[in-house]
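Ticket #4471: structure output looks truncated?

Reporter: J.K.
Steps to reproduce: submitted the chain below (482 residues) through the standard prediction queue, then opened the result file.
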Amino acid sequence: MHWRAILRLFGILLVLYSLAFLPSLVIALFQGDGQVGTFSASLFLTVGAGILLWAPNRRQQHEISVRDGFLVVTAFWVLLGMVGALPFEIGLGWSMTDAVFESVSGFTTTGATVIGSGIDQLPPSIQYHRQQLNFLGGVGIVILAVAVLPLLGVGGMQLYRAESSGVTKNEKMTPRIADTVRSLWLVYLALTVACALAFWVAGMSLFDAIGHAYAAVGTGGFSTHDASFGYWNSPLIDGIGIFFMLAGGVNFAVHYLALQRRSLGPFVRDAEVRAYGLIFLGGTLIVAITLALTGTYATGWEALRHGAFQVASILTSTGFTTAVFADWPLYLPLVLVTLSFIGGCAGSTAGGIKVVRVQLLAKLGLRQLFQLAHPQAVTIIKLGRRPISDQILFSVWGFYVLYISSTLVLTMAMMGAGLDLLSAFGAVQATINLCGPGLGKVAVSFAEVNDSVKWLGTFGMLLGRLEIFTLLILFLPAYWRH
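Returned output as attached by the reporter:
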């Protein structure tokens, strides 16, 4: 383990991240909201910590190995959560628990919050900082999922076999990783700018439009208002939100190819995107029809509008709301929780198991049934037109087992920390799936739960964001042996 090279890298990354405090500092200066000292202190503390890590190790330029990569990715995500918490601790006087939970929720694009009410009254610079966490976390996640985790042999992109993309376990969209990162950044930025402009034209203030574009494309779910999208009660704004949440849940490699070829063909030909679209349409029909038949809303149009918005929000693990879905009738809360476990596409900002894995698990199950009926038959599982190796299927199955096992263990831990079964499961569903809204006591926020639950939730968010393997491997004694 090249410890000094790792510390040098952390130092450089912290100095670079300190620049993210500048926009909030400028807003604090112009708005006069009393937070200039908060963001000045946060900036200098982060720069100082970065220099302290970098200076003694500046000549340690060993190449980071794959084994080192697991620790680097996990530790830096934790470090970002702690640094992003500084404005909440310094400016709002929050406890370390609340501040780190909010920060990690932002960076992992979960959208769960410890603020029960009063988001509207937060200083504008703090509001911007919360929204920016979703933006930076979102682009970081895309780069992590498409350019970094495949090099470690984990993550959704190693499973990606869409015919239109050519992106496989050991391939990148462009020959050099730097070019890949640059391409992803441009796609992500273009979508964010387009989303912000659309929200602004539809009636949001420029400040709200930018903040909600950060959270929509990043599928983060933070809002500048307690009522989230319900604040505007606008079908047009809801529709724009649905479009860009769904866009954020699509593999960014497919976005890149579509822009490069100036064609919608990559979206149409991609097996995962097609399945993702069908899941959204099917979920919307089930929810909207049930809402209409139960009279939850006055008209069928209202049922369709709110149903489509919540399905898009939960499927993409964004967490924006126009209603509290936990209060919806019959089986609807369970339908939406199930969608949160499915999640978006691999290589997107969405959470959950990912559509491509669900597809392969379903095909694997059907193959087993077929072989029971035809024991001598030789069957090959394909995604699109590409055959999937047994090694990848084994990896998918392993991921699924660890994901469900982690969900059950965390639910028991949440119950041990004092939550009832519904709230405990809802808290785990909200965090490990990076969804935000949960069930029971955490249907709206984590404001009323104790610190133990919040730390467990923080761990769950990191576990879900880092694709399970990246974090859990650090708990293996074999990993630390030379």
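Triage note (M.O.): checked the attachment and the full token line is present. Residues 154-174 have pLDDT under 50 and may be disordered.
Status: closed, working as intended.
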